[in-house]
UniProtKB/TrEMBL annotation:
This is 8196_t:CDS:1. Residues 4-56 form the F-box domain. It comes from Dentiscutata erythropus. It comes from the Eukaryota. The lineage of its organism: Eukaryota, Fungi, Fungi incertae sedis, Mucoromycota, Glomeromycotina.
């Protein structure tokens, strides 16, 4: 049985209250829940609505200091800033915003919707118009080489103008009386200069944020990778010995995939259990094949050499034992410093007689 959803019965004041501390992504999803929420969150003229988005922006996008551009409300601004993906073809993970056109899009979609200055000059030149003048009031972005591999002058980056804007101003210009044109052009020139200054400031603000974010994310990825590594290094088996040997782990696809992951989320305990479940079968298989190779090689050694090699390996294993990254012994005085290595052989002899250990190597 389905009745009316209780959430949609919330009075506006309470709804506004709830929204006060929500991040942009939550507000954007809330607006999609039902017509009522959409109404509350997408009203262009309502003060509380604009306030909700402004709050969310200043709390969760603190790097954005500039107010929304002309003719863009807070919601549209926050949406442009915080969503990811191309607005046109929906290609994911695109975050490049072209402030000149106030769009977030991929390069192919940008090329499709813009015109190069040289093309505009060619197409719109007539005895009635000088394209460069007509374009004065428009904002533009710098293009890119048409073909990455052909950087010859004919393909050099030209300024790109939004096609619809170009045709709009062109038609606007053609409709003018010839004696109005001079003033029109002067106004457009001033307008264009102001708009481009605004665009440049927004590009800088966004670019700075981009680099700060990228380096923050890089740091988070490194932290994640080192957490994974230290968890693997600390893991023990039933004998209380280290579960994994790093040289073998480093050959495991599962490990490499986890280390190279682009995720910036903290590596949780749950993620560790998941990783371990995938790592163990691959590790066991690899370790078994190493063991077979080793046994084949040992057949070529004399008995003494084979035993000595194994003893050396055990010794290496034991010396690795008390040193998982974090609990490195701290020598606070000379006495302790001398004592520490003396403890080692005892562990070695105690463990050296463990047949299981030798067989497991
Ligand atoms: Zn696209």
């Amino acid at each position: 049985m389905t009745g009316p959803c209780i959430a949609t019965e919330i009075p506006p004041e309470i709804f506004i209250n709830i929204c006060q501390d929500l991040p942009p992504s939550d507000l954007l999803s809330l607006a999609q829940v039902c017509k009522k929420f959409y109404g509350y969150l997408c009203s262009t003229h309502s003060r509380p609505t604009q306030e909700i988005w402004r709050n969310s922006r200043s709390q969760f996008l603190p790097y954005v200091k500039m107010l929304p551009p002309d003719n863009m409300d807070e919601r549209q601004y926050v949406k442009l800033l915080s969503e990811r993906g191309c607005q046109f073809c929906k290609r994911p993970r695109i975050r490049r915003i072209y402030w000149a056109f106030r769009v977030r899009c991929c390069k192919p979609c940008l090329s499709e919707r813009t015109m190069r200055l040289d093309q505009i000059r060619r197409d719109l030149l007539s005895k009635f118009s000088i394209p460069d003048d007509i374009l004065r009031g428009l904002t533009y972005t710098t293009g890119f080489y048409k073909w990455g591999w052909d950087q010859s002058p004919k393909n050099r980056p030209a300024n790109l103008y939004w096609k619809d804007d170009v045709y709009r101003v062109y038609n606007e210009y053609l409709k003018l009386d010839p004696d109005e044109r001079k003033d029109w052009l002067l106004n457009k020139r001033k307008e264009g200069r102001q708009k481009m200054e605004d665009v440049a400031q927004r590009e800088i603000e966004h670019e700075n944020e981009y680099w700060v974010k990228s380096s923050e994310n890089e740091k988070k990825r490194e932290e994640r990778a080192s957490t994974i590594e230290s968890l693997i290094k600390k893991e023990r088996n039933d004998f209380g010995l280290l579960r994994f040997k790093m040289p073998i782990v480093e050959q495991c696809m599962v490990y490499n995939k986890a280390i190279m992951s682009s995720s910036t989320h903290t590596f949780t305990n749950r993620a560790w259990i998941g990783l371990k479940n995938k790592l163990i079968p691959e590790y066991t298989k690899l370790a078994a094949s190493h063991r077979t190779q080793r046994q084949a090689a040992e057949k070529l050694f004399s008995h003494d050499v084979a035993v000595q090699t194994r003893q050396m390996d055990i010794l290496k294993l034991i010396f690795d034992l008390p040193r998982p990254d974090s609990d490195q012994p701290v020598f606070d005085n000379a006495e302790n410093a001398q004592e520490f290595p003396r403890n080692k052989p005892e562990i070695f002899f105690a463990a050296g007689f463990n047949v299981n250990l030798i067989v497991n190597l």
